[in-house]
Amino acid sequence: MATDTPPTDPPAPELRPLPHEMTVTPRPGAQPELVAFGERYWDLLGVNDDGRIAWKQGARRIDPAISQPHITAAAGVVVEVAGQACADCGLTPWQPRSRTALEELCRGIAPAGRCVACDEDLQIAMARQIDPAAQARRAATRQQAAQHAGQSRARAVWRAACQVAAQEAHPLVLHPASTLSERQASVEVEAAALACLRYALATAPIPALDQWPRPLSPSPDWTLALARGWYQARLFNVHPDSDLDAFVTPTLDEAVESATDRSSWEAVMDTWTPPVVNSFYLPRVNWYVPYGSSIGTAPQQLDTHLLARLDPAVMTQARQADLLSLAERLIGEETIRYFDFLIAEHNLPPVLDNHRPRLVEAAMQVARHRCLGQTYFLAWQAARDAAVGAQKHPRAPKGNMTTHGVNQFEEKCRRASADPNWRLSEWNEDSRLPLSALTRLVFLGLLGAEPLRTSRSDIEAMLPPPRETSGPAEDDSGPDETDGDSMLIDLLRALDARADEVDADAVLTAFQDGYADLLAALPGQAGTPDSLRLAVDGMQRVGRAVQEATGDGRAALLVACAAAHAYPNPAGDPHGAAVTVGEVLAYYLFSIASGPPAFEEPPPF
After folding, report:
1. Largest separation between any pair of C-alpha atoms in the chain
2. pLDDT tens digits, 164-185
3. What does the alpha-carbon distance between residue 215 and residue 225 come to, in Å, rounded to a whole number?
4. How confident is the model at residue 138 (pLDDT cuts 50, 70, 90)?
5. Local confidence band at 486 (pLDDT 50, 70, 90 cut-offs)
6. Which H helix or E strand runs over 418?
7. Which of 273, 281, 293, 515 maximizes the CB count within 10 A of its CB?
8. Angle CA(249)–CA(255)–CA(258) in degrees, nearest 5?
9. Are 352 and 399 in contact (CB under 8 A)?
10. Nearest-5° angle of CA 405, CA 327, CA 228?
11. From the centroid of its chain, how far is CA 305?
C-alpha cells in the first residue's frame, strides 16, 4: 500500500574553493571604515559548479548608502589573484576591479580590460574616497542617518506611549444596563444619539463622525455640539482604540524638552516625562455605548431606552415643544446646507461671513411656516438667480453674485413666511446631497412623516396630547444642560458673590475693548472674528441695557455673563467636548471683573 511522503527540499549544492589563490590586504593609508567595507565586499563562501560565486553578503546590503561599492572596496583594500595577469598592463598578480570580473575568471574567462592598478578613472575615484574631505562627508552622512534613525525610533516609542496614555485616560468600562434609566438628556441630544445608533456604519464601536458618508446633522458646528452633548450626558464614551490622531497628544519636541538627559535619543527616551492625554477631537474619535454586558449588545439597550424616551406620546409639553423646535431647526439647517451646496455647484464662492447671519435668519424664519421641500425650492431659485447673474455680468466679482443669491433668498423667504397662500413647488431630496441622519431620524423614525412634505404646523397637528406630570416636575433637559453647563453655573455663582465689589460699567467697557486679547486667549478656531465680535457686542449690550433700566450693576454683570449661554458652539477642535465659546466669553468677562475664578478643576483652556 503506497503512502504519501512529504516532499523534501533538494540538497544544497556543494561549494568548491576559489580555483585561484586570492589575498585581501588593507590599502596603505586607507581609513578603517574603507578597509572594513572592502573586506566584507570580497568575503565569499565558495564557488558553485557553474562558476557563480556565493558571497557572504550582497554588495548593496553592506551599506545601502554607497552607490558604487566596487570603488569604495578598491579604496579600502588591495585584492590580488595569484597566477593571473592584467590583459592591459600585464601586472601580476592580477587585481580585479569588481566581483563581476572575479566571477568571469571562475567561469574560465581570462581577465580582460584594465585592472585596479592601471584604470586611471578608478584611481581618481579611489583618491576621492581616501580624501579627508570625503571622509568627513561620509562621517556627516552616517551621523545624519543615525540621528534620523534615532529620531524615527523615538517618535515610534513616543506615539506608542501616547496611545497607552490615551487608552488609560479613556478605558473601556461597561455599566449595568439597569443604570440606563438614569441617563437623560435634552430631546436634541437624545435624538442625535439615536440617529448615531441607527445610521452609523457600525455600532461596536461607532466610527468617527468625520468618516460618515452621511453627516449626523446638517451643520458641522451643530454636529460637534451634539457630540459634546451626548458625551456630557454619558450616553456614549470615547473608545480607547480610537486613532491616536484623534487625541491631543504632546509632540515629540515637547517630550525632548521634558527629558533630563538629551545626550542621545536613547537617553532622551529613558528620561522624558510620560505623556498625559486628556483632550480629544470630537469628530475623530470612535464611540461606544457603555451600558450592557458587551459593547456588541449595548447599542440595542440604548436604542430601546432612547426610543422609549423620544416617543411623542410619553413626552411632557416641554419636551414636545423641544421636539417641534428641533424639527423646525432641521428644516432651516437643511435649507442652508442645500443653498450652500447649490452655490458651490454653480462655481460661485461661499457666502461671506458678514452675510451669513441674514441667510440663517431667513432660513429659520421660513422653516416655521413651510416644509423642507418648499424651502428647497426657494434655495434652488435663489442659487439659480445668482448663477444667472454671474453669466450676465462676467466681469463682476463672483462674490457679489453669491450675495445677490442671499438677497433673493431672503426676499423669497420673507414672502413665503408672510403669505401662506403663495403656492410653491415642493422639491424632492437631492441624491447628490442626502438628508442628514438626524433629519431622517426625527421625521421618519420619531414622527413617521415625510421629511420634505411635513411642516411645523403639520407636526403640531399630528402630535398626541402631552403627558401630564404629577408630583415633582420632570427634568426635561437632563444632564445635558446641567452637567454640560456646570462651568458657566460656577461662574455665575462666583460672580454673584463678587459683583457688588466691582464697577459694572468699567468691566463692560473693558470687556468690549479687550476684543483683541480675547481672540488671543481663545483656543484653536472658536469661530470667525466677526462672529466673535457679535458675541462680545451682544453680551455687553445686554448688560448695559439692564444697567440702564435698573441701575443695578450687579444684575447687569450677571445678565451679561448668563447671555454667554447663547453661544454653545465648541471653542476650537483641540479641546473637543471640553469648552464652548460661551464659556470662554463668560470666563473672560469674569476675569476682567475680579480676576480668574477658583474652580475645583481648572478650566480646560
Report:
1. 115
2. 999 999 999 999 999 998 889 9
3. 14
4. confident
5. low
6. helix 398-418
7. 281
8. 125
9. yes
10. 95
11. 31
In the chain, the amino acid numbered 199 is Y
Within 13 Å of residue 157, how many CA atoms lie on the same side as its CB?
Answer: 18
Distance CA 147, CA 12 (A): 41
Averaged confidence pLDDT in the chain: 85
pLDDT, residue 58, reads 87
Residue 135, H or E segment = helix 132-169
The CA distance from 529 to 539, in Å, is 15
- pLDDT interval class at 600 (50, 70, 90): very low
Q: What is the pLDDT of residue 292?
A: 92
- pLDDT at site 597: 47
Distances in Å between the Cα of 491 and the Cα atoms of 171, 494, 515, 532, 540 are 31, 5, 20, 20, 16
Query: Lowest-pLDDT range, 228-237, 301-310, 479-488, 542-551?
Result: 479-488
245 vs 513: which has the higher pLDDT? 245
User: Which amino acid does the sequence have at 378?
Assistant: L
220 burial level (CB within 10 Å; 0-12, 13-18, 19+): middle
Q: Can you name the residues that pair with 605 across neighbouring β-strands? A: none
Residues in the chain: 605
- Give the pairing type, strands 77-81 and 22-26: antiparallel
State the amino acid at position 548 in one-letter form: E
Q: Provide the angle, in degrees to the nearest 10, between the axes of the packed helices 398-418 and 317-345.
A: 140
With b for 16 or more beta-carbon neighbours within 10 A and e for fewer, the 36-74 pattern comes to: bbbebbbebeebeeeeebebeeebeebbeebeebbbbbb
Grid cell, residue 322, equals 423641544
**Closest of 357, 377, 378, 375 to residue 456, by C-alpha:** 375
Query: How far apart are alpha carbons 551 and 196 in whole angstroms?
Result: 49
Question: Rounded to whole angstroms, what are the CA distances from 201 to 34, 196, 213?
Answer: 59, 9, 9
Q: How many CA atoms lie within 13 A of 359 on its CB side?
A: 24
Residue 436 to residues 193, 315, 331, 429, Cα–Cα distance (Å) = 13, 24, 11, 11
Which pairing describes strands 44-47 and 53-55: parallel, antiparallel, or unpaired?
antiparallel
Paired sense of beta strands 53-55 and 77-81, if any:
unpaired
Cβ neighbours around 174 below 10 Å, total: 16
